[in-house]
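[audit] Reproducing an earlier prediction to check determinism. Same input, same settings, fresh worker. If the C-alpha cells differ from the archived copy the diff job will pick it up downstream; this log only records the rerun itself.
[audit] input (106 residues):
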Amino acid sequence: MLRKKYKKDRETLAKDITETGCNTIILNIELKAISKIKDHFIYDVTYLDSGVIKNIPVITTNVLGILETIKPYINTGKSAQQISFEIGSCDEVLISRSISKSKKEE
C-alpha cells in the first residue's frame, strides 16, 4: 500500500517528473481486452512525452511490444489522437478489420 504522500494526480506527477529533467516516461499500462488479432491484446497506455500527457490504445502481443509501437512517436510533437490514428492504421490492425467484416457477411 502506498503512503498518502506518494498519491498524486497525473498533472502534478507530470510536472514533478518534468522538473527532474525527465521529459518522457510511461505513467501507466493497463490491459483492456483481448484483440481479434490472434495472440494480441489491447492495452491502454498513458505516458509523458515532452511534458505532455498522452493516452493511446496499443494492440500488441506483449508489454515489450508497446515500447516498440510508441518508440517512433516519441518527441515528434504529434497529438495523442494523431498517434492513435497512425497506430490503428498498421497492417495487422487493418487485416484484422477486413477479416472481421468478411466474417459478418457470411
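[audit] rerun output stored. Observation attached for the diff report: The mean pLDDT is 82.
[audit] end
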